[in-house]
Write a structure and sequence with these properties.
This protein has one helix and 16 strands. The protein has 270 residues and is mainly beta. It has a single domain (20-245), classed as Jelly Rolls, CATH 2.60.120. Strands 1, 2, 4, 5, 7, 12, 13, 14 and 16 form a nine-stranded antiparallel sheet that branches. The chain has a seven-stranded antiparallel sheet with strand order 3-6-15-8-9-10-11, with no helix packed on it. The chain starts with 20 loop residues before the first strand and ends with a helix.
Length: 270
């Protein structure tokens, strides 16, 4: 999670407000609940692998790390030439008839070379091949300048560039009924606008209206490098270009509201 004021969190449910949603978004993962330095192959409670299904990542290639007090997902590659996949089920599938849903995430690259993407799939079990993924976008640091890389139908395209050690904010607005998506990107974290659009792209697979059921992380076969992910959200109800990450002032106000609610309850009980 980008910003953490954990002292405010405990009271949010008491005040009837949800920390995991903002303007229609549902939090999929901000990597704050995991044990640090535990990889996707570790499956004890609190480990990354207890929640994410793994197809190909070695122990240290996909793990949660502490980044200046903020927990993020680090992707590396020690198995040159081999691609890897990790995935989780969406809490609510995106129906085949859906014309608008929004998948949000942050990512940055720390070191080259590496390729990593995130996206959505209609494959229900073990999507362990690029062909299983219908939408995906990410970073390809094997090219110069370092490219934002997007799957568009039968090919990969590079609609923009991203600087090293810079968090990029991405919104993937999906039209599942037409097998296409529009991708928005900025580095400010402000609400995305039309000028942030990188274009509209076709699904890799034309499926005829199957639901999207899983989200995941894909890593290419380049050896070395590091790419990080954080703050993955979904809004299955429409096109949503706000930044879903709670601001510090919002968390403080929610925490105060929760404390006030607790005080009222205690007075009523006394």
């Amino acid at each position: 999670m980008q910003i953490k004021l954990k002292s405010a969190v405990f009271a949010l449910t008491v005040s009837g407000l949800a920390l995991t949603t903002r303007a229609g978004f549902i939090l999929l993962d901000n990597f704050e609940s995991y044990n640090v330095n535990r990889g996707v192959t570790d499956t004890n409670p609190g480990d990354l692998g207890a929640t994410w299904s793994n197809a190909g990542f070695n122990a240290s290639e996909m793990e949660v790390i502490n980044d200046n007090g903020n927990q993020v997902l680090r992707i590396t590659n020690t198995d040159s030439g081999n691609s890897s996949f990790a995935f989780r089920a969406l809490p609510t599938e995106i129906a085949g008839s859906s014309t608008e849903a929004t998948y949000f995430w942050r990512m940055r690259f720390v070191d080259t070379p590496l390729q990593a993407w995130t996206g959505l799939t209609q494959t229900e079990s073990n999507p362990n091949d690029f062909g299983d993924w219908d939408t995906y976008a990410g970073i390809n640091t094997s090219q110069s300048p370092n490219n934002i890389n997007v799957r568009d139908g039968g090919s990969n395209v590079t609609p923009g560039n991203i600087a090293a050690n810079t968090w990029g904010y991405f919104w993937m607005v999906v039209d599942n009924s037409q097998d296409e998506f529009e991708l928005f990107y900025n580095i400010t974290g402000d609400t995305a606008v039309s000028g942030d659009s990188l274009g509209t792209f076709s699904f890799r697979n034309v499926t005829g209206g199957d639901p999207l059921v899983n989200f995941g992380i894909i890593r290419g076969g380049l050896d070395g490098g590091e790419i990080q992910f954080d703050d993955i959200y979904i809004d299955t109800t429409g096109a949503n270009l706000v930044n879903p990450i709670p601001e510090p002032s919002t968390l403080v106000l929610l925490g105060l509201a929760g404390l006030s609610a607790i005080s009222v309850l205690r007075k009523k009980q006394s």
